[in-house]
Amino acid sequence: MSRLRIRPRPPLALALPALLAVAFLLLPLIGILSRTQWGELGTHLTSPGVVEALRLSLVVSLWALGLSLLLGVPLAWLLARVPFKGKALVRSLVLLPMVLPPTVGGVALLLGFGRRGLLGPWLEGTFGITLPFHTSGAVVAATFVAMPFLVISLEGALGGLKQSYEETAASLGAPPVRVFFTVTLPMVAPGLVAGAALTWARALGEFGATITFAGNLPGTTQTLPLQVYLLLQDKPEAATSVSLLLLAIAMGVLIALRGRWTGTPVAAKEAGAAAVTEEPSPSVPGPDGGDGGPVPDGEAVRADGGDWALHAEVTGFNELTLDAGPGTTIAVVGENGAGKTTLLRALLGLTPRAHARLRLGDTDVTALPPHRRQVAWVPQDGALFPHLTALANTAYGLRARGAGRAEARREAQDWLDRLGVGHLARRKPAQLSGGQAQRVALARALAARPRLLLLDEPLAALDQTTRAHVRHTLRTHLAGFGGVCLIVTHDPVEAVSLADRVLVLSDGRTLQDAAPAEVTRRPRSPWVARMLGRNAWPGTASADGMALGPGGRLVVAESLPEGAAALAIIAPEAVAVHRERPGGSPRNVWPGTVREITAVGSRLRVLVGSAEVPDLVAEITPEAAAELGLADGAAVWTSVKATEVTLVRL
Ligand SMILES: Nc1ncnc2c1ncn2[C@@H]1O[C@H](COP(=O)(O)OP(=O)(O)OP(=O)(O)O)[C@@H](O)[C@H]1O
């Protein structure tokens, strides 16, 4: 294959002015370089006046940076996170010093903080502080013009940060300030560092506002840029040398940042994580049944050493009441927009769109903020904190609830071991496969000792093979969980194989809330029929298929380790109905009686009872039903090809 790269030629009408623009920007810089007296550079830069100005510039710019961080970080957070009236106005105010002529900024500062300004007399009378002609005045001027760089940069980084990280941290028990310092800040660190560097560079180069507001006193307010201005009149060669120094610093900052001013590299990290090849962990039983590692099947997991029943009355977008005993796993299903995520967020106390009166065990947690509810949440992407190792991620909830460092780490390691990912404890999330990350996310949620566990499509991101593995692990560990677990899913197999109950939502309301088998047999809507309208037979894997729980055999093309508990999933469309015993290929053939015929959309669902196997639902066209002369009580034969049966290991 040709690897020739075709480079389009830019049109001359655009290329020419663009080149002119580059030359326009470059020429003054070349001017500085060409006029610098390199032999005198050392002498110029070490003259007492320049050294003093440099010292002052560093003091002023670092103070300005400190003040900008102190005030600008919370301001950026407010702008990025809190909805309030007049936000656009505040943002314009922040940006104003960037577009305002600095001398005008200096005049404004004089009128605000000067001796005869609004606040000046009070500052002088109360604290004895006079800003003009004082180094603190130079700091104020530099902060005024430089802080916007920090605020804009950090607001951009915060805006790009998915809120699920912070929300997950809260669900693990961390109060807002802890979340800010342990999750938000480290994750926006690149944006913060970029903003801080630009702020510092801008403060270092500040001239107009400083000279107008703070004056030009050598040793007190005369910073390097002011020195350059003065030197230009007396010693132009020295001015060139100092300009070169400032130019080098500015270039250094820009090269160090290289386009990192806005946006967080977090997204890139996540892309890296997604690119990790999915591979079954050696610690999870493979399809051949080989148990490669330390997943302790059937081990009881008591998340909080107690049993927590759930009672929830949800109002708002969701209108429903939910009651569940300790240890119940409920699959929450429904069409897109049915309100599944909103329900979970309401239970967490994270959305104003729905309100949940929530009781867990004997405790009413309705009035508690998310971090005190002991409701752990695993969002769809797992939301593992990318800057922490798997171990530190898992220890996060324990630390947030006050456990000591060593104790939290020990317990976290224990949880990771239980979920079969103990050997990955030192890895960062970007170095985990999707399946491994999901298990770490689950370990982290369980380690936080929740009384209610919310899993939002926990297996959606996984490929089919890994999905089966993680489903198996999940089921094993949910079996010992003493609270209620809600799993949002779009996958019928997941709903049927993981849950004790299926909660079907439609427009935020409960359409059906019943055992999977019941929902499967009697779907209350075409959508539920499509979603869960499958036959699910429990049994034990045998050499050529499955021995069914209530008796009977099923021949299956795929095989599981002999003796494994499994669920056979048969799509109703795959069930053929005959009046006479069929010959030919299908090896699963049973006699039965039509119990019920219901219309689902344009098709008919035929429930066939049999003495040999559990009830079977077939889906056929009305034409076929008419041809067969089907009616309640009719004697029929059903058949299913071995290749049409999916075995799900339990
Ligand atoms: N912040 C919001 N503001 C306004 N409406 C919203 C907001 N979030 C969700 N909605 C709306 O609320 C309804 C329920 O949304 P929700 O995310 O709970 O659905 P879902 O069942 O989780 O859907 P999906 O399967 O697509 O994830 C949808 O109609 C959606 O458009």
Structural description of this entry:
The protein has 650 residues and is an alpha+beta fold. The protein folds into four domains: 41-228 and 249-265, MetI-like fold (Orthogonal Bundle), CATH 1.10.3720; 304-374 and 458-533, P-loop containing nucleotide triphosphate hydrolases (Rossmann fold); 381-449, no CATH class; 535-649, OB fold (Dihydrolipoamide Acetyltransferase, E2P) (Beta Barrel). Helices cover 46% and strands 17% of the residues. A six-stranded mixed sheet has the order 6-7-8-3-9-10, sandwiched between helices. A hairpin with a 2-residue loop joins β16 (588-600) and β17. The longest helix has 34 residues, at 48-81. The protein is elongated, with a radius of gyration of 34 Å. Mean pLDDT is 83; it is low at 262-304. Adenosine-5'-triphosphate (ATP) binds at residues 317, 334, 336-342, 353. Keywords: ATP-binding, Hydrolase, Membrane, Molybdenum, Nucleotide-binding, Transmembrane, Transmembrane helix, Transport.
